[in-house]
Design a protein that fits this description.
rod-shaped, 2 strands, binds zinc ion, 1 helix, single chain, alpha+beta, about 60 residues, about 10% strand
Length: about 60
C-alpha cells in the first residue's frame, strides 16, 4: 500500500516502518503498529506533570527568599 506523501490530508510517520500513515488511522496498514491514543488521557498527563513540577518548584522558590 503506497500512500502519497504530498496528499492534502494530514499524515504521521509510522515509527515501526517509516511509512506515512493517514492521521485518522490508529494502526499502520503496513506493519500493524498501533499509534498511542492522543486523547484526554494524554492531556491530563501533561497537566499532572506540570502540577507536580509546580509543587516541586514552589517550596524551592519560597525557601530561596
Ligand atoms: Zn508501519
Amino acid at each position: 500500500m503506497k500512500i502519497d506523501p504530498h496528499a492534502k490530508f494530514p499524515t504521521r510517520e509510522c515509527p515501526g516502518c517509516a511509512v506515512e500513515v493517514p492521521a485518522n488511522e490508529n494502526r499502520c496498514p503496513v506493519c500493524g503498529y498501533e499509534f498511542p491514543a492522543r486523547g484526554p488521557l494524554h492531556r491530563n498527563l501533561v497537566w499532572l506533570v506540570l502540577l507536580m513540577l509546580a509543587l516541586l518548584l514552589i517550596p524551592l522558590l519560597l525557601s530561596m527568599r
